[in-house]
Design brief:
Elements: H1 2-22, H2 31-43, H3 52-71, H4 76-81, H5 84-107, H6 114-126, H7 129-138, H8 143-164, H9 168-172, H10 197-222, H11 227-242, H12 245-248, H13 253-269, H14 274-305, H15 310-322, H16 327-334, H17 340-365
């Protein structure tokens, strides 16, 4: 029975992803959210018996494997060579996320695990969902809090994306100057991919080695498997590996990392109780809404002060809040292909810095 369950947990994310890609009607849905929902339905029914401990064990393994895979395609050197205002605007994204998360901790200190939520939201609003997962696991957040925070982020993210592809350029353009074309890099590391299934298999093996090294160092330093330390070491090893050109150009590492995030979402969902979610969701939703909205407003104000143009502000905001996934649609809506490469590069760099910033903010806010 356990073998069948494991096959289900690894096949279902693949089927969900393919289903969304093949259907225009439901293609806008988040595969992560769908995996959560499928897992929750499975975990809250009594007809089919499931091993929730097995699912939880798979969840604990999936994220550490995903982090290096996602980071392998990061090109730090290219990011540093981007137009000065692009880099500056993304730095302002990170500052805005940190400030808004700290303010939220002051206003919403009544929310359980508030300081951990602030850390997770800093991670997701500078990097993406993988950072939220990694920080949540590192801080040993309750499963319900992790699910609720991710769900609230998905809802708020959907509303912001709708704004980005409708009236964002017009409205923000009333405040910030228009885009002027700089000389930009012609390509992104992730678009220069080469390799094969063998190379991707090597990347997965390398990710497992990174997990082993991180666990070993954590044992030596702390005498135990401190998940926070493991995640930070994993991030560092993933970024370090990305400096090797052949590793950085392996095709599909980013997608493979996202796949393991979907496995995590599905398996974690099976351990969530519907009744607990319904009884404790309001505080976390308000918390998340405050952090995202305040971070965007602070970013616009700082962009005005530093004379960042409209398109650069919007594309770096997209990179911080969503990661690379929706850079293409937003750049297309802006009718500006020149911001595509900087946006993708900033999105990938966000994955690299999100864990550091998230853990730092959480530890800063941790009650003494």
């Amino acid at each position: 029975m356990k073998v069948i369950e494991m096959i289900f947990y690894f096949i279902t994310p693949f089927l969900i992803t393919k289903g969304l890609q093949s259907s225009k009607k439901i293609g806008f849905l988040s595969p992560i959210l769908l995996c959560y929902l499928v897992g929750m339905v499975l975990g809250n029914q009594s007809i089919i018996p499931i091993d929730k401990q097995l699912a939880l064990s798979l969840a604990e393994v999936a994220v550490p494997i995903a982090i290096p895979l996602i980071l392998f395609s990061t090109n730090v050197k290219r990011w540093l060579k981007l137009a000065r205002k692009t880099v500056l605007s993304f730095v302002l994204v990170a500052i805005s996320a940190v400030v808004s998360a700290v303010l939220a901790a002051l206003f919403f200190s009544w929310v359980p695990e508030y300081w951990k939520i602030s850390g997770m939201l800093v991670g997701v609003y500078t990097g993406g969902t993988p950072n939220l997962m990694a920080i949540g696991m590192g801080l040993q957040v309750r499963e319900e809090t992790l699910i609720l925070t991710n769900t609230a982020d998905a809802i708020m993210g959907g509303l912001y994306f709708l704004f980005l592809v409708t009236g964002a350029k017009w409205l923000v353009g009333k405040i910030l100057p228009p885009f002027s074309s700089p000389f930009t890099e012609p390509a992104l590391a992730a678009t220069e991919e080469e390799g094969s299934k063998v190379a991707l298999g090597f990347a997965v093996l390398l990710s497992l080695i990174c997990v082993g090294i991180s666990a070993g160092i954590a044992l030596l330093v702390t005498g135990g498997l401190d998940v926070g330390i493991i995640m930070l070491i994993l991030t560092t090893l993933g970024v370090a590996a990305s400096f090797h050109q052949r590793i950085r150009r392996i095709k599909g590492t980013y997608e493979a990392g996202q796949y393991f995030i979907l496995v995590f979402s599905l398996t974690l969902g099976t351990n969530i109780n519907f009744q607990e979610i319904l009884s404790s969701s309001t505080g976390i939703f308000l918390y998340t809404a405050f952090v995202m909205t305040t971070a965007i407003l602070i970013h616009i104000i700082l962009a005005r002060i530093f004379r960042i143009d409209t398109d650069t502000m919007l594309i770096t905001s997209t990179a911080g809040i969503f990661g690379p996934a929706v850079i293409g649609p937003v750049a297309e809506r802006l009718k500006n292909r020149e911001v595509l490469v900087p946006g993708l590069t900033c999105g990938l760099m966000g994955y690299a810095i999100g864990n550091y910033l998230g853990f730092a903010v959480a530890w800063l806010l941790m009650p003494r």
